Structures are given as C-alpha cells and as structure tokens.
C-alpha cells in the first residue's frame, strides 16, 4: 500500500445478481479511483452464509468485467479473512469493549459496547451527520461469522481504504462503524453516501426486490457503453450538461467528484432504451454485425450482411431485436404488407417502385409481366409514360397479384389518375434532381440504382438477383 494513495473499494454481497444500483456504485468508485490516481479494490462481502453463493459472485464479476469496470486489487472474500476479524476482536477485547450475551434468538454472540453513544461524522456530500443513542451491537454472530458493520470496518481499516463511496442506505450503519474505527484507534475514511437509485415506483433498486440485473440487460442486447453512460447521469452531472460520452475512457476524462449529488435518482428504463438505440445507430455496420452474431438465429443473407445490418439498424433498440428485423427484410414479401402501408399519396411512389423492381424476383409476388399482359416489361414506358395500375385480379390464394390491387383506394384509372401519377413522379424526380445534381441518377437510369426514401428499404428487401 503506497502512502498517501487514494484507495476505494466496491463491496457487493453475492446474494443475487448485480443490478443497476450496485453497478452505479461500482462505476462511481471506479471513476473516483481514476480521478484521484488511486486504486479500486474489489471485496466480496459474503458474510451472509445463507444467501451468498459462489455462482452469484462469479456472475457479478463477469458483469463488472463486461461493463469495463476493472479493479486494481482483489477480489477478496470476507469469508476468507477470519484472521483480520480475530485480530480486531482481540484489540477491542483488550480495551474491554466486548462481551458475550444472548442474541435475539437466544444464541451466544459477541457484542460491542461503544465508549460513546453519540457524536457525528462527516459525509463529503451531506456535511456533518449527528448520531445519538447508539446501543451495543453484535460483532460476531453465534455461528462465528462477523456481523456486517464489524467486518466492513475491520476490512476497510486493514485494506487502507481512504474513501468509502456507497449507497445512502448505509447512513445508519456508518454511525456504528465510526464508533468501531474510534475504538480500534484507526483513522476514519472519508464517506460519500451516494443518493439511491430508485425504481420508477420509488422503491430502492435492490436484489431483494427483484431489480433487473446487468446480466439481463446484457442478454437482451444492451450495449455496455449505453448502460455506463446512463448510470453516470444518475447522481452526477457534467458541468456543461453533457449526457453522452464515447465510452468509459472519455467519461473518466470528464468525470469530477465535485459534481456528485446526494439526491435519489429515478431509473427510467425508457431513457436507457433510447440511449441504447442511439448508440446502436452510431455503430459502424461491421462492428454492429460482430456484436449481433450471438443474437442471430441464422446468419444474414450471404454477401449482403453489411447491407442487411444497415437496413435494420435504424429500427433496432436492443441487439435482440435483430433476428426479427433480419427476418422482416429477408422473408418473402407479402404484397398485403405493401398494400397496408400504401396511401393515396404513395401512388406515384408505387409506380416508381414498379420500374425499379422490374425484372427482379420477389417471392410471393409475380411481376405484372407474369400475371397480366397489360403491363409487360417490354411495354414499359419512359418517365413521361407511367403505366396505369393493373386491374385487380386476385390469385387463387387470395393474395392480389399486385400490391396496388389491394389498395383500399380509389383505383388509379383513367386519364385523371394517370395525370396525377405523372405529376407526382415529376415532382419527386425534380426534387431528386435538385437534391443530387446528377440528372441520370436522379432519373433512376444509372447502373446499380440505389433508391432513396421509402423505396430504398423495399429494394433491399428483394431477394438477391440470380444474375448478380
Ligand atoms: N439502488 C441502489 N442505489 C444506489 N446504490 C446501491 C443501490 N443498491 C445497492 N447499492 C450499493 O451497491 C453496493 C453493493 O450493494 P449490495 O450488493 O449490498 O446490493 P443490494 O441490492 O443493496 O443488496 P440487497 O438487496 O441484498 O440489500 C453497496 O455499496 C450499495 O450501497
């Protein structure tokens, strides 16, 4: 232990999965250590023999690692530090401050009798906290395990912890703990009791109350960066109001403990979801594809993986949305879907789609040339001659031959309709020319046309062309 070096610890109990409240405490300890150029120690507070398991411990460590919250020392386990507690009991016994008595269940336990029963301690976020009427309390339980307050103090003192950052539910424990520090002749660390993170219903996020775990978020396809960024904003604020950071590294550069707050913060799952969606959208397609691999039940279309990722990225909020979205763009297109989405204003767009998709195969939808002589590709007119929509001719299976046939719209027939389509197309093409400044591309005559707007996704949804 280096003299004068800041040392903080994160001390979870392995009695359940790591949830976002615990993770936020781990994050702030991590950031505090980074800010001070100090060390973060990980200590597993597993004195509760009945509820602690190695499985929960391993899962919590895995989640911390996934979040990128590395530690400098540990993990230490309280269950393996009996010598430290024995030495502390001895010291208190020499001072005449311990005695054996029956606990509430009638079993023999070791008690601490504090020298003083009132006083105060300083909390860096809350100022001086007075306490009074502290009663004798258990140091070592009847089964030989150290009680929480005693183990925490003996460990923090032995580990040279200089700052204790933890949730404010520990405020009442801290009064007992400072009496122990004083009785042991140890200097007290500086305390920072962080405001709690509450569920939307106002209850403390806690393992006992079934808070959603970090692992569940991971399985659902949240990005660790989104969780870190979100947790950072709960109980801390950036001087310039920033709420988005490139990653833990950038956050650590910007973080400063003077902006920590003592008020509770409500965890809003929707905001986390939005953040996640935004970060997914910002990922380069290759990176996103790699992250999606564990979530996909079948690979995206071969050779078009990145295209597929680009096509679904906008609609993805969590990575586990991917299989459904990939299916949506690769499954055969049901023309009824087109029909449902089309409105009267789409008539011009539809006519344009017909041109673009001509010659390509869409499963479940025959091109007009195959279904009706009236719209043979050979008859395709130029820009000035959009074809009228074909007459409604339902197939035997009830699926209309053309999506437009299912339109709940006035049929686009007759001169008036043709004129309307023509005007709509001209307006759109003119708009496109103005946009691109490239008449050929704008008119859709360029080689591998890439359509914009609503058509783009449709064109992507087409099965790969056999001649490509
Ligand atoms: N909702 C929360 N808000 C802020 N900090 C929290 C929250 N829940 C836990 N912490 C902090 O995280 C650290 C680890 O907590 P711990 O492992 O005891 O989780 P817990 O959910 O409080 O457990 P339990 O449900 O058993 O009470 C402690 O410092 C604790 O103060």
From TrEMBL:
<keyword id="KW-0648">Protein biosynthesis</keyword>
<dbReference type="InterPro" id="IPR049940">
    <property type="entry name" value="GluQ/Sye"/>
</dbReference>
<dbReference type="GO" id="GO:0006424">
    <property type="term" value="P:glutamyl-tRNA aminoacylation"/>
</dbReference>
<dbReference type="InterPro" id="IPR000924">
    <property type="entry name" value="Glu/Gln-tRNA-synth"/>
</dbReference>
<comment type="similarity">
    <text>Belongs to the class-I aminoacyl-tRNA synthetase family. Glutamate--tRNA ligase type 1 subfamily.</text>
</comment>
<feature type="domain" description="Glutamyl/glutaminyl-tRNA synthetase class Ib catalytic">
    <location>
        <begin position="5"/>
        <end position="104"/>
    </location>
</feature>
<dbReference type="InterPro" id="IPR033910">
    <property type="entry name" value="GluRS_core"/>
</dbReference>
<dbReference type="InterPro" id="IPR014729">
    <property type="entry name" value="Rossmann-like_a/b/a_fold"/>
</dbReference>
<dbReference type="InterPro" id="IPR020058">
    <property type="entry name" value="Glu/Gln-tRNA-synth_Ib_cat-dom"/>
</dbReference>
<comment type="function">
    <text>Catalyzes the attachment of glutamate to tRNA(Glu) in a two-step reaction: glutamate is first activated by ATP to form Glu-AMP and then transferred to the acceptor end of tRNA(Glu).</text>
</comment>
<keyword id="KW-0547">Nucleotide-binding</keyword>
<feature type="region of interest" description="Disordered">
    <location>
        <begin position="368"/>
        <end position="468"/>
    </location>
</feature>
<dbReference type="GO" id="GO:0005829">
    <property type="term" value="C:cytosol"/>
</dbReference>
<dbReference type="InterPro" id="IPR004527">
    <property type="entry name" value="Glu-tRNA-ligase_bac/mito"/>
</dbReference>
<feature type="short sequence motif" description="'HIGH' region">
    <location>
        <begin position="12"/>
        <end position="22"/>
    </location>
</feature>
<keyword id="KW-0030">Aminoacyl-tRNA synthetase</keyword>
<keyword id="KW-0963">Cytoplasm</keyword>
<protein>
    <recommendedName>
        <fullName>Glutamate--tRNA ligase</fullName>
        <ecNumber>6.1.1.17</ecNumber>
    </recommendedName>
</protein>
<feature type="short sequence motif" description="'KMSKS' region">
    <location>
        <begin position="204"/>
        <end position="208"/>
    </location>
</feature>
<dbReference type="GO" id="GO:0005524">
    <property type="term" value="F:ATP binding"/>
</dbReference>
<dbReference type="Pfam" id="PF00749">
    <property type="entry name" value="tRNA-synt_1c"/>
</dbReference>
<keyword id="KW-0067">ATP-binding</keyword>
<feature type="domain" description="Glutamyl/glutaminyl-tRNA synthetase class Ib catalytic">
    <location>
        <begin position="115"/>
        <end position="272"/>
    </location>
</feature>
<keyword id="KW-0436">Ligase</keyword>
<dbReference type="GO" id="GO:0008270">
    <property type="term" value="F:zinc ion binding"/>
</dbReference>
<dbReference type="InterPro" id="IPR001412">
    <property type="entry name" value="aa-tRNA-synth_I_CS"/>
</dbReference>
<comment type="subunit">
    <text>Monomer.</text>
</comment>
<dbReference type="GO" id="GO:0004818">
    <property type="term" value="F:glutamate-tRNA ligase activity"/>
</dbReference>
<feature type="compositionally biased region" description="Basic and acidic residues">
    <location>
        <begin position="414"/>
        <end position="468"/>
    </location>
</feature>
<feature type="binding site">
    <location>
        <position position="207"/>
    </location>
    <ligand>
        <name>ATP</name>
    </ligand>
</feature>
């Amino acid at each position: 232990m280096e003299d004068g070096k800041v040392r903080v610890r994160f001390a979870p109990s392995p009695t359940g999965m790591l949830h976002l409240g615990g993770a936020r405490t781990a994050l702030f300890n991590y950031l505090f250590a980074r800010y001070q150029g100090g060390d973060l120690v990980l200590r597993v507070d597993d004195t509760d023999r009945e509820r602690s398991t190695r499985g929960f411990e391993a899962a919590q460590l895995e989640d911390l690692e996934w979040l990128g919250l590395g530690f400098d020392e540990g993990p230490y386990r309280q269950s393996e530090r009996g010598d430290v507690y024995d030495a502390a009991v001895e010291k208190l016994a020499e001072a005449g401050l311990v005695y054996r008595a029956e606990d509430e269940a009638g079993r023999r336990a070791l008690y601490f009798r504090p020298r003083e029963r009132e006083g105060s301690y300083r909390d860096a976020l809350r100022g001086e906290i007075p306490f009074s009427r502290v009663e004798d309390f258990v140091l070592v339980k009847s089964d030989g395990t150290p009680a929480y307050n005693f183990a925490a103090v003996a460990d923090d003192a032995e580990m040279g912890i200089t700052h204790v950052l933890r949730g404010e539910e520990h405020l009442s424990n801290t009064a007992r703990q400072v009496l122990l520090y004083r009785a042991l002749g140890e200097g007290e660390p500086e305390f920072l009791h962080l405001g709690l993170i509450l569920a939307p219903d106002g209850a403390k996020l806690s393992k006992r109350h079934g808070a959603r775990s970090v692992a569940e978020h991971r399985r659902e396809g949240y990005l660790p960066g989104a969780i870190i960024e979100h947790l950072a904003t709960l109980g801390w604020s950036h001087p310039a109001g920033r709420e988005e950071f490139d990653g833990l590294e950038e956050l650590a550069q910007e973080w400063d403990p003077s902006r920590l707050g003592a008020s509770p913060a409500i965890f809003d799952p929707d905001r986390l979801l939005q953040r996640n969606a935004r970060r997914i959208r910002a990922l380069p397609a290759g990176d996103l594809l790699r992250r999606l691999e564990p979530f996909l039940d079948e690979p995206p279309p071969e050779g078009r993986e990145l295209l597929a990722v680009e096509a679904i990225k906008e609609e993805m909020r969590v990575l586990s949305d991917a299989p459904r979205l990939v299916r949506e763009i690769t499954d055969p297109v049901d023309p009824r879907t087109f029909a449902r989405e089309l409105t009267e204003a789409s008539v011009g767009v539809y006519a344009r789609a017909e041109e673009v998709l001509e010659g390509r195969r869409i499963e479940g939808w025959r091109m007009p040339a195959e279904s009706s002589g009236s719209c043979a590709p050979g008859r395709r007119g130029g820009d000035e001659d959009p074809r009228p929509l074909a007459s409604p001719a339902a197939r035997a299976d009830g699926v209309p031959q053309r999506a437009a046939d299912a339109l709940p719209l006035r049929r686009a027939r007759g001169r008036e309709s043709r004129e309307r389509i023509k005007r709509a197309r001209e307006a759109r093409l003119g708009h496109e020319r103005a946009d691109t400044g490239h008449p050929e591309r704008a008119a859709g005559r360029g080689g591998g046309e890439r359509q914009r707007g609503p058509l783009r996704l449709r064109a992507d949804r087409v099965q790969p062309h056999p001649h490509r």
